[in-house]
Structure formats: structure tokens, C-alpha cells
Amino acid sequence: MSARPAATDVAVGTELPEQVHRVTRADLVRYAGASGDLNPIHWSDRVATGVGLPGVIAHGMLTMGLAARAVTDWAGDPGALVEYQVRFSRPVVVPDDDTGAEVTVRGKVGAVLDGGRVRVDLTVTSGGEKVLSLARATVALA
């Protein structure tokens, strides 16, 4: 974990370090086992395309978790994340190859709030497309 930023050292516009995550079909299998979400749209191209998807997609909660990690890594404490919300705007399509899909998470402090808290606005993309919209986290800083 990184050193936790102090509220006095953070201003609107402060950028979080960019994180890039590679998501493969093997990751989807592991996540399905851990989460219990065995929906075949996360592992079967036939089922995924049969319901109108472009192919196998990553679990939305996996994508959401990757974005949250950028915030908790920056904050230096997972317990500092006091509120988190997103809207799913596009699925992360994970091809059946050794490369998988890339999920990029960028964050910026959008507001300094009372009580040593800040609002972090996140931009989460895959394949050049925004996959989460209105992604925001409230973080309690030291």
C-alpha cells in the first residue's frame, strides 16, 4: 500500500496514478468461482452472442472492483473508501486469446468535502470506450 495522502495535501484536480489491468478468460473463470456468478455470458461465446452481446464479457462487479482498487491503492487504506457508485455503460469484451482485454482506470479529485473527505471521479475505459459512467468514490483521508 502507498502512504496515505493527508487531506491538507489534496486539492481539486489532484490525479491518482493510472492503473491498467489485463483481464483474460482465465481471470473470468477465477472470478466466477470466487463470486459464485457462473452466468455463461462470462465464459461461452455461443451464449453471449446468442443474447446479443459482442462476445464473452467480464463481470460488471469485477470491472467495478478494478476501479475501486485504484482508489484504495491511492488512499493507502481500503477502509478509507466510505462510498462508491458507478453506472455500467458498456461491457468489457474479453476475447478468447492470450491477451484478453485491457481496463484502464484514471482518477481525479473532483471535490474536497468536509471532515477530511474527498470525492474522486473515475474514468474507466476498455478498448478506448468508457465502460463505467458516473464512477465516483468518497474517501476519508488522514
Task: Summarize the topology.
Elements lengths: L18 E5 L1 H11 L9 H6 L9 H16 L5 E8 L12 E12 L4 E10 L2 E12 L2
Antiparallel strand pairs: 1-3, 2-5, 3-4, 4-5
Write up what this structure looks like.
It comes from Geodermatophilus nigrescens. By secondary structure, the protein is of the alpha+beta class. It has a domain at 11-24 and 57-140: Thiol Ester Dehydrase, Chain A (Roll). It has three helices and five strands. It has a five-stranded antiparallel β-sheet with strand order 1-3-4-5-2. The longest helix has 16 residues, at 60-75. It is elongated, with a radius of gyration of 16 Å. The mean pLDDT is 95.
Q: Can you say what the CATH homologous superfamily of the domain at 11-24 and 57-140 is?
A: Hotdog Thioesterase
Main sheet record: 5 strands, antiparallel
The average pLDDT is 95
Tell me the CATH architecture of the domain at 11-24 and 57-140: Roll
Strand order of the largest sheet: 1-3-4-5-2
